[in-house]
Amino acid sequence: MPWFSPTKRRHRNRKPKKKVEREGHEERDVYNQKISDPFVTLKNQTRWAQGEYMRIGIAADHGGFSLKEELLSQLRAAGHEVVDFGAHRLSEGDDYPDYVVPLAVAVSALEVERGVAICGSGVRASVCANKIRGIRAAVIHDHFSARQGVEDDHLNILCMGGRTVGPAVAWDLVQTFLAAKFSQAERHLRRLGKVASLERKKSRHE
Fold first, then answer.
1. Which residues are tagged catalytic?
2. pLDDT tens, residue by residue, 77-94
3. Distance (Å, whole) CA 149 – CA 140
């Protein structure tokens, strides 16, 4: 079984025995998915294309608070389930890791399917999110990158600047990001596998 294969759906009323598979240098609980790499399942990546809604996480510090609140309303109005990781009130003295890290951990653990992180420029949010294993976050301010980042690079967190992108453009980028799906092309899987191997090497040295 390739390391990025999807897991099978379980019967809701039957609790399966714990099963552990060794894949390369990793062990993971197949059923509970106690892992940090979203590659273990591709099932959720196709739900949007099938007309289903997604479970989205969103986070912002004071620099992106106003834009987050607007996107939060738009996402919920569009039918998505949205988890708000804060900030829940505007505070000029808050720290972006307090909100971006929980969002990134949730995306990595598959508790949410994709994430949106907003700070003043988007840069600090992307730097922070990418410290979490299994996260592929990038600052996106154009339509092409919002789509291509998912299709080719399996982007799972979209980062934007609340002081650099207007609400209309931001909403267009979010919709494009959510509508795109990973191509699963062999060349992209190979390249992303090399990136993932760096994370595994780092974890073994820690």
1. 119
2. 999 999 999 999 999 999
3. 9
